[in-house]
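Before going further, learn to read the protein records used in this course. The integers have meaning only within a learned vocabulary of local backbone shapes. The record below shows the convention in full.
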Amino acid sequence: MRVLFHLILLYLPFSISGQIEGEQYRDSLLMELQHLKNLEKEQQDADIMSDKVALLCLLAREYDGIDSTKTFDFAFEALKISEKREYRIGVIDANFTLGRAFMYIDPTEAAGYLEEGYLLADKLVKNDSSQKLLKLWANGTYNLGLSYGYMGKHQKEIEFTSQVIPVVEKLGDSLFLANIYTNLGVKYLNLVNHKDGYHSLRRGREIYKSLNDPQETTFNIIQMAMAFEGLDSLGQMKKTLAEAKVLLEKYPNVFDKFNYNLQESQYYLRTERPKNAIESLDRILGLVENDTNSKLYGMVMQRYARAYKGIQDFERASDYATKYIANSKATQSGMGWFEGLYERSEYHAAAEHYEDAYKDLLLAVDIYDSLETMNTIAKLEELNIKFETAEQEKEILGLRVKNEEKKSHAYLLGALASILAFILFIGYYAYNQKLRKARKKELRQEAEVNLLKQEQQNKIFSAMIEGQEKERKRLAIDLHDGLGGRLSGISMNLSKLDKDEPKQYPKKQLQKVMKDLDDSLTELRTIARNMMPETLVKFGLQAALKDYCSSMTGKDTKVTLQFYGGDKGIGIQQQVTMYRVIQELINNAIKHAKASEVLVQYMREGNNVDITVEDNGIGFEKNKNNTHDNGMGLSNLRTRVAYLKGDLDFHSEVNEGTTVNVHINIDAA
């Protein structure tokens, strides 16, 4: 492997120092290829042949998107050599490279090459689980899944992507894994599966955070905002967009800027702030206005139309709808054409251009009728989603492809890291005795930390007991002043009836007594439910929360519950505590924040439970969020969350509502 090692030494300085990029780097690879060809004339060596094939494939990938002729020439040459010499890894690499090159041109052709490479690689990995082959298999299989997605075979794309994930985890390629989860999340969002999209994006985000790679994280966070919008969690969407904005200011790039402003415009449209939506769209118009046949252009035009409708400028709304219709025709989007005509008819009608509105509506109906049946409509919508997904992913991945091509540098850096690790191991051995002493000191510190934790735990239990005593006191007051007072009144009314000895049947007096009894029973049930909800014990947390949210919904208040994941495997005491936390948050939103709408979300994935309670109430200033800590409010709430070993986070703005997030790990609790 002398020649291959020579190639690595040639490549490493470029990837580390960054002094040779672009054309200079490709020229250096061409020189190395010529060097290998000269060596091949002198001696027929299998190592030289394998290095030559690997270099041809690398050159093909480097020229991909720059010079398609060179891309295909190098890839086909690699395939020809590998097939002639029956070099199977070369055949796999060449087919995967050709499939990647065809992906943005002809997905069907791409799938053909990728499938051939996948079938051969799948056979080899059963007997050869070397890192080199596994990396090759993972990259090729992932690209095969993408090609299926471009062809509209979304389930097959998800299936192949799912196969790749455990292999990439085994390889320890965290950046690749984070990108897979992020792109899978985008796929789910395009298929209107916001729940799975959220979970995939969250996994990707956690990995990006561990890598401390804010530039890669930005795209993920923006897509997370889209997921929250689909889940009707606009408070979380706002918070996520704010996080993305901070990262964009530090690490600006055109691709993320476009996605951020597009999602921000949707947030403003959902929160009925059309002028702000127009400002967001104005910031990115220049990126798409010269490409009127792109799906992204159509999306921007449709958003403009809806924003101008929001400010009742129906003339401009109609103009943008016309551009959206033209784009739908150009991109052969039947449903988009119908949607554009239907919306433009509304704008014409609002502007009192009734003849134009009538014509648009007739044409929209003709298009709709041409779909024949509801099954055909469903198929057309599926085609629409497929086409939009393919086009958007082509444009998105096209913008990102240069960044992703640099990832191969990381593999070579890994080889250098291994050498450095060996040197560090020698140093470790020399200082072993010193580290043992440090370990003893660390153990002592751990013992002190455990002691502090135990003291903290005692404080939590003390606070829990104190909270329970306060609740008992409140219950005693409710019974004495509320229910006790009502029953005393009933007793007095009955005594008065007995003393007065009415000659006629005292219907009105008895009706009042019956009403008082009914009110007393209702209050008794409320007190009992607050003590221990019977529904929770019998049917679990979901049923209890549904019952409670329903009971808190009234004429002036709407409490909505979204419950994703189950409560199976969660202990009854933990369920009760979660119920109390949510109960306290809803009560605070209605009584203190004066909210008219409250959204409760329960999301469980494995052992992780995320609880979010959003309201549209009066909110509070961040530096005043400890106002009620000495009462039965936030102090008791924090104590309960601490008992579950969870995290509690408040996000509030005056007159814009409050969002409370609780994260609990069931194992820890």
